[in-house]
Amino acid sequence: MRVVLSGYYGFGNLGDEALLEVIVAQIRSRFPAVAINVLSSAPAETVKTYGVQATPRWSARAVREAIAQADLVISGGGGLLQSATSARSAFYYASILREAVKQKRRSMIFAQSIGPLDVLGRFIVKRMCKGVDRATVRDARSVQLLKSLLPGTPVEQTADPVFLYDLPVDDVDLQAEGLGSEPYAIISVRKIAALKEGTAAIVHAVDNLYERHGIRSAFLPLGGASDAEVSTNIIRACSSAPMLLPECSLARAAAIIRGAHVVIGMRLHALILSARFAVPFLAIPYDPKVSSLCDDLAYPLEPLWTPGQGAPGNTQIDALVGRLVEERPHLSTFLAAAVEPVRASAARNFEVLGELLGEP
Hints:
The longest helix is centred in the last third of the chain and has 30 residues, at 328-357. This protein has helices at 14-30, 43-50, 60-68, 87-102, 119-128, 140-149, 195-213, 225-237, 250-258, 268-276, 288-297, 314-326, 328-357, and strands at residues 2-6, 35-40, 53-56, 72-78, 106-112, 134-137, 155-157, 184-188, 216-219, 243-244, 262-265, 281-283. Strand 1 (2-6), helix 1 (14-30) and strand 2 form a beta-alpha-beta unit. It has two domains: 2-157, Rossmann fold; 174-341, Rossmann fold (3-Layer(aba) Sandwich). It is of the alpha/beta class. The strands form two sheets. The chain has a seven-stranded parallel sheet, sandwiched between helices. Strands 10-9-8-11-12 form a five-stranded parallel sheet, with helices on both faces.
């Protein structure tokens, strides 16, 4: 059996590479006879890292040939069918599914968050994804949206596959990163247009963690150079001298997050790994998928700052950071319990995949 996997792979974004690592590992564990072909922006690197076949994602001919040889085409995981970046993104990923349907290959929208979609984006998904066999999505909002656009496709809510991530046996030396001897906070930010209005809130929270609670912060750039640039700009505005950590592997990033006292995060997968390892966090929901994660976990702390709603006052930030630190044991226990059913939902993605493959 051959599977083609389409996603934002080969771009060096740690969250998407985490998805790929978990998906490949789960498919190999559950369906060892299945061959995996990843549509990648860096095929040679993808082959080297994951030991899979890889096809250059921008070569239309190579992609068509890969789909022609596939038994199942998977689109996901991640936030692929959205037009917030541009309609081009939705068009590209929908065109992969359209080609699979055209070639009469089984197809699946896999562990995605759908949207935001403007009028053109909705039209693209409705027209080009018609005929997809199954769909699993990461949140209730995506269920409703996708059902409205693809009424002929069975859609069910699952969870992000990264909730299934387990750290390798080998321990990561946190001391080598300048961490581990004292409590530390991990901060994960990314570039967005509205960040200017929220920078002061992040700076105040970081300085508050150190000045009132003795917790120094370290910025972890999960999205590569772009995240590092944004992090550096915020660090320069802080009085508490937070660190900027280097880009690193998924295993190292996960170990760093697991060892953190608390996390402040914009990146979805920074928050997923926080929840996975029961590390309390404050979210910055720059995208509906982050809000949906907090809603699905029924997480009790409000966001640090929500883009588009104005920056919170310092008194509000102080109170929220105080709760994060002082209620840490309770929040950790809460997350440990909340994540267990979510991990079962994440596993459901692969059960649906197995049904499409004809496996028991």
